[in-house]
Amino acid sequence: MVNPGADLYGSDRMALETVRGFVQRGFDVTVALPEAGPLQPLLEDAGASVVMSGTPILRKSSLGPSGLVRLFAEAVTTLPGAVRMVRRHGSRLVLVNTVTPPLWLLAGRIVGAATATHVHESESRASLPVKLALFAPQLFAQRIIINSEFAKGVLKESAPWLVKRTRVVYNFVPGPDDVVPPRTDLSDGVRLLYVGRLSERKGVHVAIQGLRELRDLGVDATLTVVGAVFRGYEAYEESLHQLTRELELTDVVSFEGFKPSVWQSLAGADIALVPSVLDETFGNTAVEAVLAGRPVVASGHSGLMEACGHSKSAVSVPRDDAGAIARAVKDVVERWGEFRLAALDDSQNVAQVFNAANYVSGMMRQLALDQPVGT
Prior knowledge:
42% of the residues lie in helices and 15% in strands. It has 14 helices and twelve strands. It has helices at 10-24, 39-45, 65-88, 103-111, 128-135, 149-158, 204-216, 234-246, 263-267, 284-291, 302-308, 322-334, 336-349, 356-366, and strands at 30-33, 49-52, 93-97, 114-119, 143-146, 166-168, 190-195, 221-226, 253-257, 271-274, 296-299, 314-317. Helix 5 links the parallel strand 4 (114-119) and strand 5. The longest helix is centred in the N-terminal third of the chain and has 24 residues, at 65-88. 46% of the residues are buried.
């Protein structure tokens, strides 16, 4: 398996769960990472061997002319090492997690291993050159696993030549060991929470704007932001701090950085916000909030609709609409008794949908690994 980073965001956690499923079924798993990080020890604890191997990473920010030249140069210099590594491990399958490190698909095909990609991206609004750069290398993938019907539909529009080899397997989203019931009394103010990558597409700025509008509606509320930026995107994080100052919210917005576990943050929150302004293939953070027994206010589009579709306590709002977020939160607060009970029910019901058994069996079946080792 190849993963483009060593963080613990949604796609990284899916890589970890896939490794656990493989190992539990008797497969030897080696994971190539570009650098050390919090994902590495968890992979090793799951039974995988971890190796460090640099590889070109496709980012939309690097798809200009100079960036493409640099990516091509990196590919030429790193491909031989990738081929040697796949051959040395005698790999039966090369599974690339996300579309961003596609070089390994070519390495697998050169060696004669089966190749597959687990796609977590949905780029319906990207330009045609960006779509081609992201998806053309997937011609080297014999199987593509994607995590929602919405994302498969986007893939059909963006790269129709890949659809026949694409299958949907919903994410496994683990819940907390114990659900801490939501508070019964919100008289001291409602506690809002955003968890996820700090990026413009995730709409963190909309959450902050929504808090301003909510307080202007007379609702006492705070917002905790848990997450960090990709290296090189620090300017967006600074813009969030600047926005907080401009809206006079510095006393009620706290930035807590990346946390390897979200459960303590969710236990201390009342309502989770998932304000993505661009398409999401799924919505792990929304499901995590539901599993923790917290109502969710989420953008009502793309894969988030599938992620929240089993939850009575999830409220959908238009994307990029701070006022809609404020009004939805106000409504949840005013009907808190109803939403509180619905959230507790959801935490049990949703756990039966996005569970490990369903996820792993789906991955094994679609990757033709559901036969005993050696067959």
